[in-house]
Every structure is written in C-alpha cells, then in structure tokens.
Amino acid sequence: MFGLAATLSSKGAEAKENWDSLCVKCHGAEGKGDTKMGVKLGCKDFTDAKVQADLKDDAAFKALKEGLKSSDDKTLMKPFEQLSDDEIKALVAYVHSLKK
C-alpha cells in the first residue's frame, strides 16, 4: 500500500511541476485562466464547479496530447508532445484538483 501511495504522491508532485512549467502562463497558478494570455485566449476557470463538471477526462487528455484550435483554426494551445500519456493523465487529474 505504501508503494502505491508514494507512486501516486510522486505523480501528483510531477503533475504540479508540469502545470507550473507548462500551464500557468495562460491558466494561472490557481487555474482561473485570469492571466493576460488566459483572458486573451478565453481560458476556462478550472476552479469553477460547472466548468469541472463539463470537463471530461478523454477530452482534456486529447486537448493536451493534440492541442486546441479555435473554430477559425487559430492555435489556442499547442500539443504537449514532451509529456508521456501517464504524465498527461496525471495533469488531467491535477486540473480536477483545482476545483474549489
């Protein structure tokens, strides 16, 4: 049991590090999307319960893996090709933890 808890804990710490290095510029430290770039791009407030309810794991995974484009084909978020599938899953779980 301890090994699993330690593994989950290290994945959580790694996910936070990835959040801090890759996501904070647009989404903000708390996930509110209230940075200058976040407002410009229309980032969602991940602390909002309704936003969280609408956030499906598979869609979030795909957005991180493949990136996001607007309806007029502008890049909103580049794909995070440097992250493994497990790192992306951990990051999606971290985003869910931002709900207030």
Order of helices and strands: HHHHEEH
Overall, the morphology is globular
Instruction: Count up the domains.
Output: 1
Q: Oligomeric form of this entry?
A: single chain
Distance between the termini: 29 Å
User: CATH-wise, what's the superfamily?
Assistant: Cytochrome c-like domain
Give a short overview:
The protein is mostly helical.
Helix-strand layout with pairing:
Elements: H1 2-27, H2 36-41, H3 49-54, H4 57-66, E1 68-69, E2 75-77, H5 85-97
Antiparallel strand pairs: 1-2
What does this structure look like?
This protein has 100 residues and is mainly alpha-helical. It has one domain (2-97): Cytochrome c-like domain (Cytochrome Bc1 Complex, Chain D, domain 2, Orthogonal Bundle). The chain contains five helices and two strands. It has helices spanning 2-27, 36-41, 49-54, 57-66, 85-97; strands spanning 68-69, 75-77. A two-stranded antiparallel sheet has the order 1-2. A hairpin with a 5-residue loop joins strand 1 (68-69) and strand 2. Residues 1-8 have low confidence and may be disordered.
Features:
single chain; mainly alpha; 5% strand; disordered N terminus
